[in-house]
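Complex 502.
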Amino acid sequence: MKKKTLVGVFSLFVFLVGCTNPNTEDSSNNNRMNQSFENENNHMMNTPSESGTNHMNASNIGPLESSKGLNELKIPEVLEKQENSEVDYEITASIGTTEFFEGTQTETYGYNGYLLGPTVRLKKGETIKVRFTNDLNELTTVHWHGLEIPGEVDGGPNQIILPGEDRIITLEADQPSATLWYHPHPHGDTGKQVFKGLGGLLYIDEPEDATHIYPDNYGINDIPLIFQDRQFDENDQLNYEQLMDIDGTLGNIGLINGTMDPKLTVTEPIMRFRLLNASNAREYTFRLNNGDSFKQIASDGSKLKQPVEMQEITLTPSERVEVLIDFSKIEPQESIAITDEFGNTLLPLELAFDPQQRETISELTTDEPFLSEEEKNLPISKKVELFGQMNMVTINGRKFDPNRIDLRQEHGVTEVWEIYNRPDMMGGMTHPFHIHGTQFKIISRDNVEVAPNEQALKDSVLVESGERVKLLVTFPEKGIFPYHCHILEHEDNGMMGLIEVY
Ligand code: C2O
Ligand code: CU
Ligand code: CU
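Predicted structure with CU-O-CU linkage bound:
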């Protein structure tokens, strides 16, 4: 697509070493700078010592190492509903260890376990009660990313749960089927707690709807893929304090569903994958190694009107897509894999279905226009300016203050927000912008109509440096909701505001 991975994260570094790179002198031309950076970056990866002293972690971490395909992909368990209990579900955050490296215990955090968490599945329209218990040694919150629920149960930074405490949270899923997720949100510590392992998937299922035509056998032909990158310290620990990068913590090792060196055995010719970028900061562009296209069927918060053929898909932190991949025409001996844009293998796929087993992809299509004429012509009523890098990040010139309301909007009333990512003298960087309590529509990017694969409900949006993105935002519920950059270190450094929905 349009964006080069990590460009933003590295652009400051490129600026600093710019004297050695003849292409960076025109820093007003961001595209050109990005281009030159890519070359510089590839070069740096092979010979890190040539680039001199690096003061930032980010400059030491390049593309992910290829998966060696040693371990079958773990599939998170689906959380069982409890019968005859005060609550429907129990979720406990706790500390434990995970053996990523043979013979070494790495300290990790998890929900109902020690790494990541179970998949919560809600039916559309269903109301559930969750008892959340904090067994960590530190305060946390649990945020339901993408759910359109009242502010008081959203789990943002103001809804702290102290160590040893629990809380019963009532959630109602009154929105279309989608792949959402849940994760901690304690201000200043979100980056650390996610890095240590906290996070899980939250599906909304709509059993009666047309989307039922897509493969939906969980873990068999409907596979969740939670992408995260990690680095480990010299003792193979996830030592966040040491490894943290103020501009976005990156890792050289890719985990999928917490599995190191994953591979997946594909047992059916047509597979649905639900991809979540749950990394602190890394942006991924996904491709198939043989160059084949695949079909995107959903974005963050809803299905697309019809599947869109894609060669590659870029996800910034917290974004999701659902895709269908048709393996039926692939020769069994062909080695196939999901890769990044550098060609590094993220997930090798081992085809293990009967080649005679033919299927065709049924497709959901509707002719309803994505935006009505009225929606297209609504004037901008809120302006949000993203700015800065490192710990100098701001929204509308300010840093997060838990006691300050930055914006107000009436519930049920649609407004147009313009998100502007103001470049700085170093070119700026991409910020993934997220709003709680709403599933919005992207109206345009720099006044150009939004691409077909983004014509679905979303809660997070990639905003490139210099770009203006118009969003159509409605909050169905009242309360106070954060909006922020989803690079977790930017969020922790105050690139966040609060909106009061009345
Ligand atoms: Cu993924 Cu403020 O959230
Ligand atoms: Cu959120
Ligand atoms: Cu940011």
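The longest strand covers residues 89-101.
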